[in-house]
Every structure is written in C-alpha cells, then in structure tokens.
Fold this sequence. Notes:
CATH class of the largest domain in chain A: Alpha Beta
Oligomer: homodimer
Number of helices of chain A: 16
Low-confidence stretches of chain A: 1-10
Mean pLDDT of chain A: 94
CATH architecture of the largest domain in chain A: 2-Layer Sandwich
Shape of chain A: globular
Largest sheet of chain A: 7 strands, antiparallel
Strand content of chain A: 15-25%
Strand order of the largest sheet of chain A: 15-12-14-13-17-18-16
Helix content of chain A: 25-40%
Amino acid sequence: MQTSGQTSGQTALRPDFETAVLAPIRAIVGDRGLITDPDTMKPFMESWRDGWVGRSPAVVLPDSTEALAAVVRICAETRTPIVPQGGNTGLTGASQPHADGSEIVISTNRLNRIREIDIDNDTMTVEAGCILANIQNAARDVGRLFPMSLAAEGSCQIGGNIATNAGGVQVLRYGNMRNLVAGLEVVLPDGRIWDGLRGLRKDNAGYDLKQIFIGSEGTLGIVTAAVLKLSPLPRATATALVAVSAPSDAVDLLTRAKGVAGDRIVTFELIQRACIDVARRHVPDVPDPLRDRYPWYVLVELADQDSGNRLAEMLESILEAGMEAGEVLDGVVAASKAQADSLWRIREGIPEGQKREGVSFKHDVSVPISRVARFLDRTDAALERACPGIRPFSFGHLGDGNIHYNPIQAEDGDPAEWRAKLATVNAIVHDIVVDLGGSISAEHGIGRLRIDEMPRYKSPVELEMMATLKRAFDPHNIMNPGKILHSSGVAP
Amino acid sequence: MQTSGQTSGQTALRPDFETAVLAPIRAIVGDRGLITDPDTMKPFMESWRDGWVGRSPAVVLPDSTEALAAVVRICAETRTPIVPQGGNTGLTGASQPHADGSEIVISTNRLNRIREIDIDNDTMTVEAGCILANIQNAARDVGRLFPMSLAAEGSCQIGGNIATNAGGVQVLRYGNMRNLVAGLEVVLPDGRIWDGLRGLRKDNAGYDLKQIFIGSEGTLGIVTAAVLKLSPLPRATATALVAVSAPSDAVDLLTRAKGVAGDRIVTFELIQRACIDVARRHVPDVPDPLRDRYPWYVLVELADQDSGNRLAEMLESILEAGMEAGEVLDGVVAASKAQADSLWRIREGIPEGQKREGVSFKHDVSVPISRVARFLDRTDAALERACPGIRPFSFGHLGDGNIHYNPIQAEDGDPAEWRAKLATVNAIVHDIVVDLGGSISAEHGIGRLRIDEMPRYKSPVELEMMATLKRAFDPHNIMNPGKILHSSGVAP
C-alpha cells in the first residue's frame, strides 16, 4: 500500500563519499562486512510486506560493537545518515533507507552471539542480531521461557524487537519488549558506546536511560546488545476457542477470566468471523472449529507453572460461567496439543489470508479495553457510511486493547479505486481511536507509515518533547532520519 | 547521618522576589495555597529520617494542574528554582530544599483527587497528591489490587512514588512503579502541561515520554496525575518464614520456588538473624518464630486468584523439597492471617529497630540475584578488615536482588567515631556492588545522598547522557536542581 516517501532517483551523496566515508568503513569492517553490489544489497532495501523500496550506497555489517561504533563515528564525522537494520521484518518502513540513496544501512546481522545465560538471575545477554526464535530456544534449553512471541520470530532480530518495543501474542501476561529488557548496550549517534548491560531488576541510580532507546525505532542510537529477563517455563497450558455475539461480551468474559485466572491468562485474542472465513479461503489446514457460525470468536490460552489438568478445569469453569451469564455462545477447549495447535492456526492464518483477499486497510490501534466495543461499533458504522461495501475485518489482542482493524475492499471492487481511499479510511479510523483515548500505533511503531499523521494526533507539546529528545541525542539528525519525526522535528 | 549540602544561612533570593515571584504566585493560588510562615513551613523543610534540613521562602500548594503549571511558569520566567514535594517520605534528600533558601517548594498535597476508575480496563486515574494507601483502598473497594506496597504507604504520595520509581515488597511479582504506570500528566520545567494520561497497555506511537519522568526525582518536571494499572485481587495467600544457613541457599530456594510457583511468588525477603534480634529488642510484638536460632531467614509469600488451600500445599511442597535438598533448615507456614501478620511484623520491625540500635550505614543496593551471596561474603569480609567490630545487618528483597545492606557500629563503640567512617564504608560497599554489576541505588534513588558518588560509579558516557537529558528538558536548571546531578551536569 505504501510507496517510498521520496521518488527521486537522484543520489544525495557527498562527492568524496568513496574516500571520506566508504574507504574508512572498509578499513574497519573489511570486505566481508561491506556490501555495495546492488543485487546483493536488494534484500536490505525492501520491506517484505508493504512495498517500501529504498536505495543505499552501502550495507555495512560490523561483527562487533566496537566495529559498529567506529563505523558510526565515521558517519557522524562525515554527516552520513544511517539506517539501522535488524531482521528487516518491521511493518512501518522504519528499517529501509529512503529512495534518495544518501543513507548507509548498518545491519546487525553479524552481531549474533548469545553472550551469557545467568540461570539464577533469570537473565540472558544477547547481541542485537540474534534471531528471536533462537533466543526462545536457548532459553527453553535451560528450562526458561523468553516470552516475546510474534509472527516474524523466525527471522526478526532482538535488536529490532527492542527498537520497536515489540508486542505479540503474550503481552497480556508478560508485557511488551520494554518489560523484558533489564539492560542495554547502545551505540550513540556520535559513535560513543553506552554500556548499560546490567542484569538488574531494580536500579534507581539516576535516569533509566535504556527506556529512551526502547521503542525509538533506531532514531536515537543503535542497540547492539541487551540483557533479557527470562521467566519460568510453564508446565501446563489450556487453550479454547469460544464464540461470542459481540465484542462487549468478549470484554466481559475477559474481566471474568482475569478475576479467576489472573496472570495465567497468556493470550486473549478477539477474532471476527470474516477473519476465519478469509483465512480458511486462502490458507491450508485452518479449521472451522464450531458447528455453527458466530459473529465473533475469542482464542484464549492459560499457562501455569503448576502442572496437571487443573488449568483445563479452570478454563472450563470460566467458560461455563460465561455461558451462564450469556457472554459465551459456544466453544471448544482443546483436548490435546494437536487440537490447540489447530486452534492457533486460525489466528496465525489471518494475516496471510488477508493479504490474498484484496486491498486491505491496516490499522494497528489500541484503546482502553473498556472502549474496544465502542470503537468497533463507531468505526464500522462510520466506514460503511463513507465507503459503502467495505468489509469489516478485525482481530487482535483484546487483552491489551490492541485491535488490528483491517477492513477489506468490497468483494468485487476495483483495487485501484479502493487504494485511493486509503487516506480517507485512515483518518476515519484514527480520529475515532484518538477520540476514545487510544493510540494510532499500538505495537508496530510509526516509522514512515504514520509519520505524517503524527501532527494530527499528537499534541504540539508532545511533538515538541519528542523533537527535544531527538535533537538532544542526535543533533545532526543522522540516526534513521525521517522516521517517527521529520527532520525539522515536528512538521512534515 | 546526612547534613545538608550547604550550611550557609545566606539567602540567594533575587531582590525583587516579593513582587516578581511571590505576589504573582499568590494571585494564582491564593492565601490557602501559599505558606511563608517558617513554623508552618517546617514539616516541608525536613526529612523524617535522615536529617536533611532546608530553607525556603515559600511553600506553594496548588489545587489544580493548571494552577501548578501557572506557578511553574512564573518560576521559569524568573529563574526561581523549584523543589517538587509529595509526601516528603523519601530517603535521599530529594524532596527537601537546599539550605540556601533560594528554592520554592511546590507541594502536591492538594492535588488529591481520584479522577476515574475504569474497571474493565483495570486502570485508575489519580492526582499526584493521592496517598498510596488511599489508592490501595480505592482499588480494593472495586475488587482490584493496586500492588505498590511499602513502609511509608500511609503518608507517601503517588506522585513521589512515580518520581522515584518506588519499589517495595511486591516488585518480584508486580514490578516497580514504572510497570504500574500506563499514563502521566506532567508539568514541564517551562510550565507547559504534557497530557499523556492514556490508559493503554500498548502504545508505540512515537517515543514513550512517560518513561523519562518516572524515576527522575522531580528533576525533569512535576508529575501531576497518572493512570495506574490495577491487578486482580488475590483470593488466597500463603506465608512462611524459613531458616537457611547461607544466602546462597536462599537463592537456590528462590530458583526452586520460581520453577514451581512462578508469578505466585509475591514476596521473597532475606533477613539476617541480627535484624530479628534488633527488631525484637526495640519493637513490641516481634516474634522469634522458630525454636532454634539460625543465621539467615526468608520470608516468602505466595498469592493467587485461585482460592482454597492449594496455595498452602504448594508452599509446603516447595519448602519440603528445599529441606530435602538441604536448602531449608527449618520453617513455619502461617496457619492463619494472624500468624502471617505476626511473621510480617518481623520484617516490618527491622527499620525501626535499626534506627534505635546506634549508628548504621545504610546501603540500598542491588546485584544480579546470582551474585547476592558473593556480594554479602565479599563485603562482610572487607568491612570487618576495615572497621573491626562492625556488625553485619542485611535484609531485603532477594527476589529482586535488592539488599538493604546496613551494617551497624560496634556494640559499645563511640557514635561520633563510627559516624566518621561513613565515606570509607560507603566506598567499600559500593565498589564491590559495582564490581559485581550492581547498582548503588536499587529503589531509593540518588537525591542528594548519593549525588557525589555518581562520578565514581557511572561511566563518563552515562553521566553525559543523563546531563544531556537534563539540559534538554530543563535548560535553566530550575527543576529540583542539585538532585541526581550537580548543576554543571556531571561533576560536583
């Protein structure tokens, strides 16, 4: 849906780029750490889903924090803008360069060591380029859980997860990425290294600087390593898919479940019927789990260190009480791991199914949980008025108030015509979100995708504060410029 | 133990203070909102425990965010330094003015409304001056838990809890204050109001600005209101006091307990025998719970939404397994609420007992949990060499790696002589803490108490980053100056 912000093919490189920038960088990282061939650079220039395409004179792949810092120092001295890149799986165009070819990409691909696991402290020290799934597995190998879990976990890197304060399907229990970070190592925009790799759960010795970098999308520095918090590995899980007639019933069921199961609730995903239909249409092995069709579903999963089937009993008792109260219409509790996996395939098949269904309008929004139902009602009605035939398509992390509100074009509509409605649809959705006290980006970030919407939805004071922070740490605006904020700080 | 940084009785007020500062402030807050009488100001000038005494020309008590902001604007225009103050229960001299009488105290005492409780969203919007215990009670009244819990809860204010990123006895399960804040309203050092009062669990729409203010000890702005996250109210608790022979056994028991009980572990407090003796000596109704004497104890509490006596069974099974493994020597599981309260009196009596026992050297430190035992061994040995006769006195939140390492002077030593050893003792303790990757202030903050130690224990890069942040948001250094950082930014 998106096109690159700049369409010019002109390169804005300084004339002595080869000698002043590239040669000194090559001297640091060697030929193995430097890609300048356009074909080889291609995967670093493009986003996997959303069509951002950029250009760059070089992709640099340092193999140590010191080498990365030395590269950044050269960029700082020569005012060469930098795009930090991890697994390049983000959804907002934050990790690809702009199209003017002026920016160097610094990849963390080769910073991929697990430096230490401290079992009694429940922490693991990893480099930014470690693949999320590898971290999950390393934790599991020592009997621990690293609870960050999201669709891209097989290729996304922890540095990117940190830079975007990643969310995923277990935030309800374990929090966002921010909650899973005990310490950070960061290369600052002037090339200094900040060693904040402390494995502490409590540290009030001055400002908590790591918070500044988590979620800053690489605009304030490059995360090179982190101390991650591990959790006990659950011994039991219980999974159910239940049907409800409306999102407000799902919210009531969530409140009920929290009262009984508390932190055992790991997942509470709301799914509109249309999402199941679309997933089943385009993705193999997605089941239709209940005999009848219902307007809304909830995928709920409990987990506990306490083993045994008590967890399934607890889940069943919650659902029975929900049924008596009229919140739950029907449901199935998985009787086996295979059945649970099958229920999860419904949730996991939705993004792929949607991609194949036609033009869709993606919104990653959050509102207070108590207002999710109102948000859906108001937005569905407003969109139907503005774009008759548009098909509601909502799913997401109800437990966090985070809805992926992704309506799809009318069934036989002309894709080009529908694509032209993007700005209209965005404005309707986001106006209502913000009116309800919500966020226009719950977990994906701003990047370039939402950068021009920031002045509409953030107060001048808040935009100025963000610009103040950016200017303080990156006064020459070389660190991922044009992401989150425009170079002027606040306005496009 | 501490004396005010400046002993001069000279007042550094501008000559037109009355007309340029005080009169316009009186016009905003009225006589009810302004105290200038020295006797009435006295409680605002002193700390309750540590002997900080300051002077100020006025204490201002605005009754709304707008009024507070207007007062700050006057201070900003006239470059009048401000000391924000909540319940004035902090332990580092952060909330009292300096002795030179140049600083105005702005108290949040009258900002004490609970603005909203949103049950389905599990959030509560409160003003900064709300007493922590009142917030806990308001949550309980609607069947929710606000889990921040600490000794001063009957008089400390939530604004101060946020400004110091308070810890307490339930951090292991619920996190520090930072984890309990969904949104903030802050008056910036130039008097602008930032409305970040969003009740969201996920919000990645740009920099997460609230993180900057949490734990900044009022040096970057004044928190005036917050959206707090509530938790389900536990239906069952199980409490035990167990004896162990060494801290390393307590760590092993903690690891064991986490594997079985996971997030049910709310409290895991390590207590040295000397602490129990001293509490019993000076505080009524502190029991000696086990027949024999042991060198170390652990107070452990589990909590769960799931009612019934299964939790006690779980705790007993953990302790039995710990006993078989040789970690646990003896123990008692509370059979009633009254018994649990009695066990808690041991822990709660320690600070009071210590106060009455003589000169003590307080250190609020943290290290990785895996290094707590090493920290205690090394530090005890080093102190005994440097200050023969010093009595080890350690207790604290082992589950967070946070030890209150507070050795007491030799039994019959001269207090004045022992007081003179303060710098020596601090240096020994903090050198070892930092060598082990720890923090010189786990939960109390820096304030003035630790400000001069910052250059010794923080890297130049980290100090410069803190100064950068301070200068960016408070360029004229009027917001709680001389706390955390000296006015020059990095050096005393």
